[in-house]
Amino acid sequence: MICLRVHEQARGQVEPRIRRRRIEISFKGLIKILFRNFFILVFQRNPKEVFKIRKSHFLFFVLLISASFLLSSCAKAECKANADCQAQFGKDAACIDKQCKYTPKSNFCGNGIKDAIENGKQGNKCTCPADYGKCEGKGKIKRYDIEYDTQYLAYYCDERERCVFGVDKKDARPIDLIDERELEEFTIETKMTFNRPFDGKKDYFNFRVTLKDASQELVLPVKILKATVLGGEVLFGELQSEGLLNGIGDTANMQIPLTYVPEQIEEEKSLSYKIDYEYKVKEQQRLANGSYIDSVSAPKRNSFERAFRENVFLVKSGEAGG
Q: How many CB atoms lie within 10 A of CB 191?
């Protein structure tokens, strides 16, 4: 009966591993009992006749050995063809010497191997977290010898399915600061926009200067010469400009990159900006005979400064220092 069941398994009706294990255990137990009983029957109680073996006992011993080999070969048969082996995720099955052998599939996500190619894509934590691990975790910063997790910087998968250290776009928000200022002969509006957090490797301080009003004495255009971002006396960025405001409603746009290099991968700073400009006005020039004629003044230069109403949170992407 036992051998018959094993032959049925070899024909394709493969039982679960647990059942095969139980059969192997029962075979071992059966053989152990048979050998124990055999030695009790064969060997005489008299020590002088311990090696005198009866003929019937000898035949029984030969049959017992043959049966044990037969049962052992029947018990270990798992398969006859590759199709008899149970499928395992991420592995190829093959029937070798009536045994099911499993080898990891190459370039397959989930085989437990960090392949260069995973399911047709470059292998990394974003394309195959099952083998490479998840793309997650914060950076580390130190303040007064105490280590903290970063507030914004973290590992995430970008649009190109790469595990990068930085700020995900969905976690950044734009901050708009608008200021309207009456100057000598005109009024201008300054709109300054920056991201919070501010990634110095890819973000800019964006300025838009608009001429809102002008006196009759103003001679257009108004020139925007330079925009500067400062932190006290420390320069954070600047841009030389030739923006011209030729009439009311005209605008000049500037993008200022960050030139300051943060010491930590995250820093919060209180900043201000400064706008340098140039303009001309109408004048009356007195002639030698005492009369006056209309003229234009020499260029007048000036500047104004404005503090940010919100602190700037600077981050250094791509650096996961601790």
A: 16
What CATH number did the domain enclosing 287 receive?
2.60.40
In a domain, 288, yes or no: yes
CB 256 within 8 A of CB 208: no
pLDDT over 70 percentage in the chain = 75
* Cβ–Cβ under 8 Å, residues 259 and 283: no
Partners of 213 in the β-ladder:
187
Residues 109-165: tens digit of each pLDDT: 988 899 999 999 999 999 999 999 999 999 998 888 899 999 999 999 999 999 999
Q: How many CB atoms lie within 10 A of CB 48?
A: 7
Q: Is 283 part of any domain?
A: yes
pTM, full prediction: 0.65
Cβ 240 vs Cβ 226: under 8 Å:
yes
Instruction: Return d(Cα 307, Cα 270) in angstroms, integer.
Output: 8
C-alpha to C-alpha distance for 267 and 265, rounded to whole angstroms: 7
Query: DSSP readout, 41-59?
Result: HHS-SSGGGTT---HHHHH
> What are phi and psi for residue 209, nearest 5 degrees?
-105, 125
**Percentage with pLDDT > 90 across the chain:** 57
Domain count along the chain: 2
Q: Establish if 117 belongs to a structural domain.
A: no
In the chain the first and final C-alpha atoms are separated, in Å, by 67
Q: Which of 101, 121, 151 is the last residue of a domain?
A: 101
- What are the start-end ranges of the H helices in 77-203? 129-132
Domain span including residue 60:
2-101
Are 55 and 186 part of one and the same domain? no
pLDDT tens, residue by residue, 71-96: 555 556 889 899 889 988 888 889 99
What's 261's DSSP letter?
A: -
